[in-house]
Amino acid sequence: MSRRHLLCLTGLGLLACSLPGFATSVTADHGWIRLLPGNLPAAGYVQLHNEGDQAAMLTSASSPRYGRVMLHLSSNRNGSASMQMVDQLAIHARSQLRLAPGSFHLMLSQATAPAPKVGDKVMISLHFDGGQSLQVPFVVRPAYAEDDGSTAPTGSASSSTAASP
Ligand SMILES: [Cu+2]
């Protein structure tokens, strides 16, 4: 159970949770960046949770580490992969939206020097309709990474046990 859920059970929490605006209703976790070599743009992924009663609209994003951050959607039409810009992304009431490889992502380009490297934590601000923003830490991961690395790889423990004498 998240801290927010606990807060909502208290009297003060009830008041806070009933206030309009999503600043108290949208949270983000598992932020990570897939770094690509050279000057290729990097991609940012994150999970957004809207625990409020109203939809929240993500309209843009920015970062001190990247000169340009765009909302993108990857698609695969007739076997060819492509990306398109997205004006805004809705996180519906009481639901979540996952920015993930092959789907929605943040396209990060024009990295500021020194360029982000694997292991860095990059702050990205997510800007929502209505003027509020959310500061989210993104951990930088290598090009081959599939997720934020917070889940331990499965299977490695048993294989190493089998290999030991
Ligand atoms: Cu893209």
UniProtKB/TrEMBL annotation:
<dbReference type="InterPro" id="IPR058248">
    <property type="entry name" value="Lxx211020-like"/>
</dbReference>
<feature type="region of interest" description="Disordered">
    <location>
        <begin position="145"/>
        <end position="165"/>
    </location>
</feature>
<feature type="signal peptide">
    <location>
        <begin position="1"/>
        <end position="23"/>
    </location>
</feature>
<feature type="compositionally biased region" description="Low complexity">
    <location>
        <begin position="150"/>
        <end position="165"/>
    </location>
</feature>
<dbReference type="Pfam" id="PF04314">
    <property type="entry name" value="PCuAC"/>
</dbReference>
<dbReference type="InterPro" id="IPR007410">
    <property type="entry name" value="LpqE-like"/>
</dbReference>
<dbReference type="InterPro" id="IPR036182">
    <property type="entry name" value="PCuAC_sf"/>
</dbReference>
<protein>
    <recommendedName>
        <fullName>Copper(I)-binding protein</fullName>
    </recommendedName>
</protein>
<keyword id="KW-0732">Signal</keyword>
